[in-house]
Amino acid sequence: MFPLLMLMLLAHSRWLATANVTNGCTSIVKNIFILSGQSNMSGRGGVFNQTSPAGTVNLTWDGVVPPECQPNPSILRLSAELTWVEAQEPLHKDIDVNKTCGVGPGMSFANTLKKEDPHIGVIGLVPCAIGGTNITQWARGGWLYNEMIRRTKAALQGGGMIRGMLWYQGESDAVELEDAKLYKGRLKKFFKQVCKDLQLPTLPIIQVALATAPGPYMEVIRRAQLGIKLPNVRCVDAKGLPVGPDLLHLTTPAQVQLGQMLADAFLKTQRSVRVADSKAEFELYVADSIAEF
């Protein structure tokens, strides 16, 4: 009886801790990350075809959540209703509503950040990705762009800071040659407009170079992604990560690895900033010393 009572008390204390985080989160979420793009950011890990007794084929998520993607009371997600809740897979279940969502890179990314930087505090994820969308649909003034900016600004209500944006998109632009040729310019413009509208000119943006595409021009898109030369944009390469039976979407283990790659890239941007700040401080100190001398 005593062990059962202790188990109930522990479960209740964990519920209270979670409730305190999610209900009072507007005042404690300090590290906000935008998750945007199309299906491989939304997450299709563990999604498979299931044939019903009637013979119809439905996409179903297998429900498998690997250890790297397990919930953590200090990792939150902004729901479709613009409220903070404890994050759990699938992160985009109420955002990419016309598709079956599975595991994406977001939870692996957040858990890796928590592991590598134990002092980072609360992480707030803002899911915005929609499957099957091309870069023109993300142009400034369109519904997808406006919704992403609206959700991001809502995430800031009550405090917090936008720390970065994770972007995985481009498969849909690999179908037509004209779209592929124009992709680099459109993507660069998109990144610049996001930074301008969020008033964050140095916002770290970690984009993913394609692993797969439904069209013949994937390499044109990849060259564009790898060739973006903006000081605040880094690119991680997903090519070679395991792909599911549809030959388009990353598997659950691949999404776990991608999340870790994204976290590593983000942490490198922070180290670069610290080095730059230290260099600037040292140069200022030397200049002041010379002036005094």
From TrEMBL:
Domain of life: Eukaryota
Key words of the record: Hydrolase, Signal
Pfam families, per database record: SASA
Domain Sialate O-acetylesterase, first and last residues per copy: 30-268
Range of residues in the leader sequence: 1-19
Name recorded for this polypeptide: Sialate O-acetylesterase domain-containing protein
Species for this entry: Datura stramonium
